[in-house]
Amino acid sequence: MNEPVVPVDKPMSHVGDEIAAIPLEYPRPVGWLAGAAGTLLLLLGFFLSATILFIAGVGIWGVNSPVFWGVAIMNYVWWVGIGNAGTLISGLLLLLNQVWRNALNRFAEAMAVFAIVCAGVYPITHLGRPWLFYWMFPYPAEMGVWPQFRSPLTWDVFAILIYLLVSILFWYLGLIPDLGTVRDRAKGRLGQVFYGVLALGWRGSARHWLRWKQAYHFTAAIAVPLVFSVHSEVGMLFSASQLPGWHSTFFPPFFVVGAAFSGFGVVTMLAISIRQALHLEDVVTMFHLDALARITLGLSMLMGYCYWWDIFNSVYSGDRYELRAVGDKLSGAYAWSFWTTQFLNVVVPHVFWSRRARRNLFVLFFVGLAVTVGMWFERYMLVLTTLYHGFLPSSWNYYIPTFWDWAVFAGTIGLFLFPYFLFVRFLPVSSIAEIKEKVFQIRQERA
Amino acid sequence: MVDTPADRLGNLARQGGRRFWRGLEEWIDDKAAQDWLAAEFPAAFDEGIGRRQLLKIMAASVAMTGLSGCGPAPEIPAVPYVTQPVDYIPGMPRWFATAIPFDGYAQPVLAECHAGRPTRLDGNSLHPMSGVNIAAFTQAAVQQLYDPERSSAVTFRGRITTWDVFAAALQEERHRLLKGGGKGLRILTGPQSSPTFLRQMTALRGIFPEMRWHGHWSVGGSRSEASYKAFGRVLQVTPRLDRAVVAVSLEDDILGPGPLQISAARRWAGQRRKGQGFPLLFVAESTPTLTGAMAHRRIATASGRIPLLAAALSGLRPQLTPAEAAWVQAVQQAVKDNPGGAVVSAGVHQPADVQASCMAQAHRWGEPGRTVSYSEPVVIEPDAGFAELVADMRAGQVRTLLMFDVNPVYATSGVVDFAGALARVPFSAHAAGIYDETAALSQWHLPMAHPLESWSDCRAADGSVTILQPLIAPLRQGRTIHQILDGLAGQPDPDAFTPVRATWQSKLEERAWRQALEDGRAPDTAFAEVAVAPRPMSPSAGAAPPPGTEVVFRPDPSIWDGRFANCTWLQELPKPASKVVWDNIVAVSPAMGRKLQVDTGQVVEVEVEGRQLRGPAWILPGQAAETVTLFFGYGRQRGGSISEGLGYDAYPLLPARPGASWAGRITRIGENHHLVSTQLHHAIDGQDLVRIVAPGEGIDDAAETTVGHPGLPTLYPRYPYPGHAWGMVIDNDLCIGCNACVIACQAENNIPSVGKDQVAVSREMHWLRIDRYYEGDLDHPYTHFQPVPCMHCENAPCELGCPVNATVHSPEGVNEMIYNRCIGTRTCATYCPYKVRRFNYYFFTRQAAPLEWAHRNPEVTVRARGVMEKCTYCIQRIAKARIVADREGRAIADGAVQTACQNACPTSAIVFGNLNDSQSAVAGRRGSRRNYGLLDQLNTWPRTTYLARIRRKGAGEA
């Protein structure tokens, strides 16, 4: 691979010009306005449907008995998963000193933050009495009651909350030098003040750089284990029950792999969109997209292994309920979701064996989409095939999501995309400082 | 009294439902009330008994007397007690014995009253026909009492008027009738056993010699003709399942819903509890019933072929199918093996000849007085039947028609144009609790007092009389049948109490009368058994019915003939066989389903004698191949908003002539009807959820896990339970699936009904459900019922899941639900392997009308939206028993805590108590070799365990 990872051959100022110019004089105002308005509409839809949900009760959703958890929990897992990959790309690859991460890390981190926010609203909207959500926090209550520390939900709350805080911190820390750059380039007073405040007095002194680097790496070191803990915790939500199809120690690693996979799908779509919309071909190069495709392919095979190992695990147990759960997965009422998952997550990514596919933006985008959708169906399959057929045949029943299930889901897409549009418009979408650093390093090496 | 019509209407408006909150006892403090009491009970006052003492002596009944509902209650301001009556402790319920009549049979009850309002009914423990047990229908009486849609005003041609106007009209009519000696006066009632009614009828016959009383049977009928044929006299013939070892039922749903269910089920359980698998129940029936589900050997055969089986049992040789012949042979073998211990009975809808031949056969099979008992009939024979009335009405011979608590416009064969005949009656009055189809077509509609608001009397299955006493002033201005009949007899201002007391004046002196009220049973009123000799009968071989589809009619198991249709508890009560709610079904056999290509829920058209109806098919395992069963009670035009617009009306298809089955035709229409069932899967899926053993055998399972003997390891330390360790054992061998426990639980624990739409999305709230499973092939399955409350697992998966400690284990082993703490993550329910937890997806309890709040149990939290709930082992009863025991300084005695389901169960299938007490009943059952835990392989250590069903091998085993 001899193609450039960073624009080595362009002047040093080129990177700054390309990226820092975006927040200051946005190149595609019409497209941005249209997109932001559309996603704002979705966001308002979220507030509307959430308000109706809070007033009427969770009964407006399709959840029932025995399917006490429905689309809300599926979406929760899905959003958490998407969020995870952001931190994985930027944190883990930073620690592993992967040069190519620098183009992607900023918007992957933004994706993580907004996805976690979307995930975070579900455990609250999903409650029967959402106004009491804070009872899950360990605060010194008057009555001396604490959360129930054996419950995976309690640990879920901790995991999500810490993860959200660390993601924001990590994202913001990374932004500081670039905010300084944008501040310095800002011509209007408003921009100077806005970015000036955000830049926290960044002067670019050597001491600043040293402290910044220490802090950034340190936060990355905290963030990376959280990636694993959060989704392991989500996996525990299921495996702590005794229900056939869920009661497995295999779930935590399985969920972590799934999370990374879905995140890479979304990152691919975002990378292509931002690259094309903002003409960042020099920053997000074909090399980056190729790398994403390769990782997606690898994770896809890992996912396939997980799916079938899970099934093998159940079959090997010989337990009649586990066997029935496998039967339901493969040919039950929701088997279509299993096979959709298999197709989208396990079969489709194999196009990436071809170099041409890896370098075709359309193929890349659609495989990213397929993976994202496929991972949603995986959660659909996991939640439903177990819940609709529990132990006692007398309480078997089906589940049909209602309009309001979908309305809240569509709303969270607004909740994700609208802040993302704001991010793209007002903050540097890629790490100017880190790319420049790499350009400098490579030039040094060449020299 | 009010004078102007405006005043009358104003008075009427003031009679709204809220007035009943007034405390009852304070009435005694009122001067006017004292005067009234002095007039009513001169003896008590003459003896110089003080007011307080009077209250003490008379216990509740006097206080109730004051509210006997004669017209508008006096205006008394509602103020709190200044001085508290001696025996009344605010917050403590009081109990009164009374009865709810059902088709002429008293259902003895003990009513729990809080602050002057009845909230719940139990069986009357002093009454041998019920004990504490109570059927679902009887319990629903409380809900009917507070039905906001009960008829609340006298109407004349649909316009609201007053009782005074009616009284004036009745007097006028009376004078007219007196001239002709009562010619043209007809009275129509359902089955009656009230001695007061009988006395009043006798008195009325003195005044109006030409008067005639007609009986209307909406379902079933009377056995009087059959018993007359068999024994030459009208008799109450009671199969004694407690003494019989072989019981044969030819479509006689002995254990099924109906007025005799509780007494029959208690008897059956008495024999069954011995653990030997007796009585061996042989059932031949066309439609699955509870009796069939309990059968040792059941055969599904057309209703029209039952006479052939009866003939075969009496020794003839009719043409039988091989399966029928095998069944008959098995019966005969069992009878031969158990000489003198067999009984046989035929369904009340079967021809009188068939019933009579079974009665005679039972007399031959059983030792005298052992397997059948004979007594005077409980239900009084009316002068004539319904058909004669309709004929007379058509002929214009009926001038005055008084109808009491019947709905013949709805509950009558479609061939009989009762509505048309009614239009020809110059003076028609309909008294009922609800403004129904007949009310709308009668000139007068009179709101009838609910049994819990009435003075009356009624005979139970053994003939003993229960005096009905009012527990509350009539909420809706209702009057009793006795008041109206007294009015007809010329009484100017009839009250409810006088006619009933008059009946018993000579038989029960004051003290005995009070005792009878307190006990809920008048002494020495039960009928003695009589010895009988069968008349010679020439048994007829019976003719085989024509081949082809037959149509039979049955009352709906949950709402009967429609009289319970406005009751949400019963509408939402899953029907035992189909588990359908809020609808009736057209039951077809699996074979017919295949033949017609009809699936469950598809609409079919059923035709009898050229009349058609359409209803949703339900493929019912165990249904006879060629039989189509229609259920009454639905398709109501009027009768309250709950009842209207549900299901189809089977009555128009019912032929006028009596019979058991009719040739019919069924065709597939194809469109789908949205039937809602609480259980979609019926096969037991090869699991050992319901276990079966032979008599004396135990569960052959070494890994048996109970709380006492944990078989599988756990990481958590065992809690020692130094005090009580509550537990429940449910004997599957005794459960007949009658649903009494389900309603008892609902009534005790303020469980809301959620409506058809919510059940359709599987959100019913019943804390206790009865799972029904089939074993064997579709056409001839065994049916199993399994009540499933919370298992109160020792290793409870739900407790692990809850993030906020809202469901925790109590120091006495109960898995508790803290509603206040619940935030509704539903993790507990998701983790529950038994799926017994129920979630308030909406604010279900707020949907009830304010009047319906009155029957809520003040000792149980009414749950709001967004919280989880489930069976608590009736923890409020445990708490209550503990308070009583603590005060008396002793331990809680075994049996002091009875859960609501346990109380109601007529077969005592449910036993609850302290597992730590080795002498307790529950510990005894837990020690049974039949004891097993549901899904015990999950190591949840359920505290609710089950006893395996007992099935005898041999003796006709297939």
Number of E-type strands of chain B: 38
Reported CATH architecture of chain A: Up-down Bundle
Taken as a percent bin, the fraction of beta residues of chain B is 15-25%
* CATH topology annotation of chain A: Formate dehydrogenase/DMSO reductase fold
Work out the helix count of chain A: 15
Largest sheet of chain B: 7 strands, mixed
Alpha-carbon distance between the two ends of chain A: 20 Å
Distance between the termini of chain B: 73 Å
| Rg from Cα of chain A | 23 Å
Percentage of residues assigned to helices of chain A: over 70%
**How large is the share of residues in beta strands of chain A?**
under 5%
Assembly context of the chains: heterodimer
Level-1 CATH class name of the largest domain in chain B: Alpha Beta
DSSP strand tally of chain A: 0
What does this structure look like?
The complex is a heterodimer of chains A (447) and B (958). By secondary structure, chain A is mainly alpha-helical. Chain A has one domain (12-446): Formate dehydrogenase/DMSO reductase domain (Formate dehydrogenase/DMSO reductase fold). Chain A has 15 helices and no strands. Chain A has helices at residues 12-24, 29-56, 71-95, 101-125, 152-185, 189-199, 206-239, 251-278, 286-317, 320-331, 335-347, 355-358, 361-387, 403-426, 432-446. In chain A, helix 3 (71-95) packs antiparallel against helix 4, helix 3 packs across helix 13 (361-387) and helix 8 (251-278) packs antiparallel against helix 13 (361-387). The longest helix of chain A is centred in the middle third of the chain and has 34 residues, at 152-185. Chain A is globular, with a radius of gyration of 23 Å. Chain A starts with 11 loop residues before the first helix and ends with a helix. Chain B has 958 residues and is of the alpha/beta class. Chain B has 4 domains: 1-222 and 379-505, Rossmann fold; 224-375, Dimethylsulfoxide Reductase, domain 2 (3-Layer(aba) Sandwich), CATH 3.40.228; 550-677, Barwin-like endoglucanases (Beta Barrel), CATH 2.40.40; 692-950, Alpha-Beta Plaits. Chain B has 30 helices and 38 strands. In chain B, the strands form 12 sheets. A 7-stranded mixed sheet of chain B has the order 5-4-16-15-14-6-7, sandwiched between helices. In chain B, helix 9 links the parallel strand 6 and strand 7. In chain B, helix 9 crosses helix 20. Chains A and B meet through helix 5 of A and strand 29, helix 26, helix 27 and strand 33 of B.
